[in-house]
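Priority: medium. Attachment 1 of 2:
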């Protein structure tokens, strides 16, 4: 039996590798996953949530360049490497976009950047504010590859860090839905009778409530926040898993290997976990891939409505909400870039799910 399972698994993997779009989509998912983990390493603005605001350079086009003066605060913050990797750097320095600067009489004189050919304010700062008076180390030309958002934040950094929510919400929501769906679906399908009737009643009631309304209700009950959205989305996606598991177990529990397991005196728990569930693994993979995509779309919708991830946390859905009116103001890319990112990730998961379905179909 073990060798047969191994041969079927290797056969399915061979079929999957022959599916170009499935392999390509899996590579896209892996790349986005790597970007989401290493977001603060890749982001030009590595501050927490890439939240360095410069209102004087708001809504600038991709490729915009400006000289940035960084004034040290003198506050020393200690952060571990893992803290910086996962939560970003704690930046206490003040950053000011400038048009020009000069040094005279021990002072650094600079003119703040302004748009529309206006003359900015001229200000001075003592050179003693800079360590050893090396002011050149604190002035750099910064390029914003994706431009800036309406608050003057680096848009590329916000896109990179926003991938975390959209990517990881899929994992957490799928894990929650699998745990609840497997337990309830297994109990309903294997035991039947009143247990099946009660669980199916719960499934039908949950199924009749629109998903978005249920997520909103759970989110309001748990409160607005990062983890609350993850839990709320996961608690609304178990119904599909439970229905699939129930149907598969009803079909599988009458097969000869299950009857033989009962005759050998195996416990119900062992029969379900060791004999039945491994044989319905294929449909679970497919529905999990679909739930990944659905979770990403639901989170984006919640963020768009303002009850998802809360500012200043970066989220693709919230970025669309903040900039959708720019579509008619001549800068549609501010809403289109996060929209295209959502579309790419959702499509990748759907294509991977279709590829796994074809690979696990023994009739093809």
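Attachment 2 of 2:
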């Amino acid at each position: 039996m073990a060798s047969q399972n191994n041969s079927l698994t290797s056969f399915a993997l061979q079929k999957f590798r022959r599916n170009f779009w499935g392999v390509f989509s899996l590579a896209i998912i892996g790349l986005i996953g790597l970007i989401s983990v290493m977001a603060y390493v890749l982001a030009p603005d590595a501050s927490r949530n890439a939240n360095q605001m410069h209102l004087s350079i708001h809504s600038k086009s991709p490729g915009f360049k400006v000289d940035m003066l960084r004034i040290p605060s003198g506050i020393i913050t200690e952060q571990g490497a893992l803290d910086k990797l996962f939560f970003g750097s704690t930046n206490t320095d003040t950053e000011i976009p400038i048009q020009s600067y000069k040094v005279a009489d021990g002072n650094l004189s600079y003119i703040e950047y302004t748009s529309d050919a206006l003359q900015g304010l001229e200000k001075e700062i003592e050179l003693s504010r800079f360590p050893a008076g090396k002011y050149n180390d604190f002035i750099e030309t910064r390029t914003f590859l994706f431009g800036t958002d309406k608050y003057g934040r680096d848009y590329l950094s916000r896109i990179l860090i926003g991938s975390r929510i959209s990517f990881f919400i899929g994992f957490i929501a799928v894990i929650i839905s699998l745990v609840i769906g497997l337990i309830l679906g297994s109990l309903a399908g294997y035991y039947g009778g009143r247990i099946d009737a009660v669980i199916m009643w719960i499934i039908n009631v949950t199924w009749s409530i629109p998903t978005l309304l249920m997520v909103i209700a759970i989110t309001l009950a748990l409160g607005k926040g990062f983890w609350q959205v993850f839990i709320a989305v996961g608690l609304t996606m178990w119904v599909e898993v439970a229905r699939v598991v129930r149907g598969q177990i009803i079909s599988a529990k009458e097969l000869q290997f299950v009857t033989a397991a009962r005759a050998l005196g195996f416990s119900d728990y062992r029969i379900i976990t060791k004999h039945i569930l491994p044989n319905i693994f294929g449909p679970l993979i497919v529905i999990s891939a679909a739930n990944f995509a659905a979770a990403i779309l639901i989170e984006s919708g919640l963020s768009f409505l303002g009850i998802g991830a809360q500012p200043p946390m970066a989220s693709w859905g919230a970025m669309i909400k903040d900039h959708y009116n720019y579509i008619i103001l001549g800068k549609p890319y501010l809403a289109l870039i996060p929209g295209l990112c959502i579309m790419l990730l959702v499509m990748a998961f759907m294509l991977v799910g279709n590829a796994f379905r074809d690979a696990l179909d023994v009739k093809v």
